[in-house]
Amino acid sequence: MTDSNINRRTLNDDTVLITAGWTLDNNNAHEMVDAIMLAQADGYKFIIIDMRDLEFLSSAGVGAILGTVETNREAGGDIVLCNLSEGVQHVLTVLDLVDYLTIVPNMDVAVSRCTAKT
Amino acid sequence: MHRENLTLSDTLMGPTLTSRMSLPKVQHLAERQALALDALSKLARQFAGNPNFDQLVHALVLTITGQFASSGAFVVVRNRSEEMGQPLLYATGRFVNKTPLIALGQCHKLTTFFRQNIAPFRATDLVAVYPDNDVVQELLSCGVQVIAPLVLGEKLVGLMGIGARVNGAEYDGAEIEFLGTLANSVTPFLASSILFRDIAGLNAWHLEILNSVKQGVFVFDGERRLSKMNDAACAILESLGPDQRRCTTQLGEMIERVFPETVFPGWTQQIEAHSTGRRGRVIESLVARGSDSERIFNVRVGEIGHSEAAKPDLVVTVDDISKQKDTEHHLFELEKFAEKGMLASSIGHELNNYLGLILGNTEVGQHALENANLDKVASCLAKLKDSVGKMARFTAGLMDYSRMETRQTTADLNAIIGDVLSFVTVHKKFKRITVDIDLDPTLRPFLMDPDQIAQLLLNFLNNAGDAITEARRSEGRITVGTRQDGRKVTLAVSDNGAGIPPEVRDVLFQSRKTTKEKGHGFGLVTCGKIVENHHGRVTIDTEVGRGTTFTVHLPLGPPA
Fold first, then answer.
1. Which end of chain B is more exposed for a tag (fewer CB within 10 A), N or C?
2. B46 contact residues in A (CB cutoff 8 A)
3. B28, B38, B65 ranked by CB distance to A63: nearest
């Protein structure tokens, strides 16, 4: 836990859930990086980022995910994004990242996606 | 290759949106650039408002990473030096901890190139210019795709770079130009942030120095507002009672509020009165009244930052000497205690003197008896009686050093000298010593304690005899003289003995010092007390190997 807006919960031995706050930008992108890197250091191959509350995603927030995702993938895992709002989805589309990042509609799909890859 | 001074808006609305692009791509590019504009404007506000260097540069790198959908991005900036010096690396993705990027900032040949070619360029272009440069080769191996120098005026502030796009697509010309525009926009903020960081670093360094000083240091500006203080200063303020606020709230306060009269009486006025010149002046023993104790401080006041335009700053260094004062008080008490111990020895020493007199008169009396000289026997017995009486008075009067009072009566000093010499000189110590007398015949009787004066003379004579014995003189000589000069009388005892070393002479009447091989060093302590009782003083003229003269200066009557 690095910030009250970014929460972490363990789902199983391989998977951890990080919940984003309502915004992910210059102010707190580094906190997201810290949360992801801490989970990686704790040995979680899969990180699900629940974006149900996220209303605004800046390029710094995108950078937080892009700058860390390769570490999970190299370990045979991934960072899975779920519950994206239309605005957040649009940002990732504009940046041409929807095919690169693993984006799923909801938590259940996210968990099953992680389980399937385990 | 110099880039035009484009603004971000120019780039967004101008040449990057070309007719060669498809409509969705143009829309996406515009939106991406709008996203970048939003991110950068927020970043700029953050840089301007709160230049937390590390956090902001990291946010910048994350922004570039996201904005260019890159596998990683980096910013290398100089670290507190005019040139790149030891650069700092801020990176994401594949560039985290890539030391070759730091080497990039240190390579003099390349930094010169960056200064002269400030437009962003592909890493492969750098290879074309420097094909054999190791740093450049390592850059390629790290996966650096595009580099944008961060240049402000003539100075290279740092470098910004991005790795390959995550979707594998090449960066096109518009995107590289866009990276240049980003670099152009953030460089002034980055430079000012570096400046702030350097100033903050210097401030921290200065504060660290201040905090290493055990004295409290307060710095007041020209208006006498507290601008800085060290940990010791905080501790002083906080320790002086519950009324003192926490030190962090003291910054910016006027001097009279930092040192309120209730706790620091008279401090502000004293400090102002002593605040002239850089060298600093010390105000000794200022008292501060805490809620439960009183403490004493030495305060040094000095000015810094003299200029014609502004009143100089004031540096107030506060040294708590309460413990030192306590220690001094304890030492004083210990000295008093030791003095009483010395007194006991001194009494024994003096009793020995009287015993010597008794022994001397007994020997003389025996000799007189053997010769049937009854008059002499009677005289000796009278002197014995007198000596025993003096001993009794001595023991009664000197049992307690603090009760060593004089019994003043009018007496003839010359007569006392004759009396003392009459039985001292018969002692075997003086058998090979010539005692000369040089008495002032005009000296009239004056107010004194004759017993104490006799004791004083006895001590001086004994010391003189011992000094002559120590010097192994074949012809010892002692001179006792008196002089009257107006209302003052002097009694001088000179010898041609061993003399007294200078380091002993200065403390002879204050502590246990002796030049004798078997001496106690207490006789002169008593002499000092006797002279003090008579409101006189003693001077010593001595030379090692040649002898000593003790001169007692006495007033003819008690002081007015």
1. C
2. 26-27
3. B65
pLDDT of B381 above 80: yes
> Do residues A92 and A103 touch, judged by C-beta distance below 8 A?
yes
Task: Identify the band that residue B14 occupies on the pLDDT scale cut at 50, 70 and 90.
Answer: very low
Q: What is the mean pLDDT of residues B218-222?
A: 89
Which residue intervals of chain B bear CATH 3.30.450.20? Answer: 216-320
Please check the confidence at residue B396 and state whether its pLDDT lies above 60. no
Tell me if B166 and A97 make a contact (CB, 8 A cut-off): yes
Query: Considering only the top CATH level, what class is B216-320?
Result: alpha beta
pLDDT of A102 reads 96
Q: Give SS3 for A45.
A: coil
Number of domains in chain A: 1
Give start and end residues of each alpha helix (H) in chain A.
29-41, 59-74, 86-94, 107-117
Max distance between CA atoms of chain A, in angstroms, equals 35
Is ipTM > 0.85 here?
yes
Distance from the B66 Cα atom to the nearest Cα atom in chain A, whole angstroms: 4
The CATH number that domain B8-199 falls under is 3.30.450.40
Residue A117 lies in a domain: no
The answer to whether residue B156 scores a pLDDT higher than 60 is: yes
Beta-strand pair B446-448/B409-411: antiparallel
**Which residue in this structure is represented by tokens 């002879």?**
B508
- Residues spanned by CATH 3.30.450.40 within chain B? 8-199
- Closest C-alpha to B376, from B365, B361, B360: B365
Taking 80 as the threshold, does the pLDDT of residue A117 lie above it?
no
Name the residue among A59, A93, A99 with its Cβ closest to that of B66.
A59
Beta bridge partners of B254: B225
Query: Quick check: B283 pLDDT over 60?
Result: yes
Considering only the beta carbons, identify the residue of B39, B59, B169 that sits closest to A30. B59
Question: Region B166-182: what's the mean pLDDT?
Answer: 87
Q: What is the mean pLDDT of chain B?
A: 79
Q: How far apart are the CA of B140 and the nearest CA of chain A, in angstroms?
A: 19
Chain B residue with the nearest C-alpha to that of A71: B93
Q: Quote the CATH superfamily of domain B329-555.
A: Histidine kinase-like ATPase, C-terminal domain (3.30.565.10)
- B420 pLDDT higher than 80: yes
d(CA B159, CA B229): 38
Mean predicted confidence (pLDDT) in B320-347: 66
Question: Given the structure tokens 């650096």, which residue do they identify?
Answer: B144
> Residue A26 and residue B72: Cβ atoms within 8 Å?
no
- Looking at residue B242, the DSSP 8-state letter turns out to be T
B193 has pLDDT over 80 = no
Rounded to an integer, what distance in angstroms lies between the CA atom of residue B314 and that of residue B299? 12
**Distance between alpha carbon B142 and the CA centroid of its chain, in Å?**
54
Domain with CATH 3.30.565.10 in chain B: 329-555
Residue B342: pLDDT band by 50, 70, 90 thresholds? low
- In chain B, the residue whose alpha carbon lies closest to the alpha carbon of A93 is B28
Q: Is the pLDDT of residue B128 over 60?
A: yes
pTM, full prediction: 0.53
Q: How many CB atoms within 10 Å of residue B262?
A: 8
Residue of A nearest to B56 (CA): A26
Q: Which residues of A touch B94 (CB under 8 A)?
A: 70
> What is the per-residue pLDDT for B339?
52
Task: Print the domain residue range for A103.
Answer: 7-110
To the nearest whole angstrom, how far is the Cα of B277 from the nearest Cα of chain A?
49
Q: Rounded distance, CA B414 to CA B441, Å?
A: 8
CATH of residue A19's domain is 3.30.750.24
Q: What is the mean pLDDT of residues B462-477?
A: 86
Chain A residues whose beta carbon lies within 8 Å of the beta carbon of residue B67: 59, 62-63, 95
